[in-house]
């Protein structure tokens, strides 16, 4: 009885010889449809033989090959999918965290810097403006107060001087005129009365003397 292993070996040798013959014919002869068909038939037969032999001596070969291929494809697909998802998720998370952290940091720094700058500028501007306004208002108030005080002082002094002068002049005139009139009246009345009395006395005496003389005669 022929051993199955020997039959398989002889079959493999025959297939190898046919393949070698097909290669030689394709390389040496002109390319035509018969040669190409023969070569394709030989290769197809060898593939069928290999599959048959592997299925006979290693029944799990096809399953293992398919499982390995499927495993490789699954690993590749799952790996790519997981990598993409991980990259996407990690990228989004990192971007969000970075944006949040950078945004918060930048916002704080910008707020702090802007706040300090604005405060300094506002203080400087307000200080200068207030100083200018206060100086201007002080000058205006000083000028206004000076004008008002000067006007009031002049008006008050004028009124007081006028009243004082009027009172003083009136009083002085009254006193002086009174004294002068009194002295003049007294002097005039005294002289007039004295003259009148002397004159009346002389006339009366003369009349009496004349009457007396007339009576004696």
From TrEMBL:
Transmembrane segments: 12-29, 35-52
Segments of skewed composition (Acidic residues): 184-195
Signal peptide per UniProt: none
This protein's record includes keyword Disulfide bond: no
Organism superkingdom: Archaea
Composition-biased stretches (Basic and acidic residues): 156-183, 196-217
Entry keywords, A to Z: Membrane, Transmembrane, Transmembrane helix
Region described as Disordered: spans on this chain: 156-217
Protein name, entry field: Glutamate/valine-rich protein
């Amino acid at each position: 009885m022929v051993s199955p292993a020997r039959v398989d070996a002889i079959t493999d040798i025959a297939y190898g010889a046919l393949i070698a013959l097909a290669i030689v014919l394709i390389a040496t002869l002109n390319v035509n449809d018969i040669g190409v068909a023969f070569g394709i038939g030989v290769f197809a037969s060898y593939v069928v033989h290999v599959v048959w032999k592997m299925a006979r001596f290693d029944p799990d070969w096809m399953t293992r090959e398919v499982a390995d291929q499927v495993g490789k494809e699954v690993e590749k697909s799952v790996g790519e999918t997981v990598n993409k998802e991980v990259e996407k998720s990690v990228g989004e998370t990192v971007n969000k965290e970075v944006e949040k952290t950078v945004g918060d940091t930048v916002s704080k720094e910008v707020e702090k810097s802007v706040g300090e700058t604005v405060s300094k500028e506002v203080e400087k501007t307000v200080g200068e403006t207030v100083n200018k306004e206060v100086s201007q208002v002080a000058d205006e108030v000083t000028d206004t107060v000076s004008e008002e005080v000067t006007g009031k002082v002049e008006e008050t002094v004028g009124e007081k001087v006028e009243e004082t002068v009027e009172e003083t002049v009136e009083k002085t005139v009254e006193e002086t005129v009174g004294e002068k009139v009194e002295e003049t009246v007294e002097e005039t009345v005294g002289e007039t009365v004295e003259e009148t009395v002397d004159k009346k006395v002389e006339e009366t005496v003369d009349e009496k003397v004349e009457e007396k003389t007339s009576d004696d005669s």
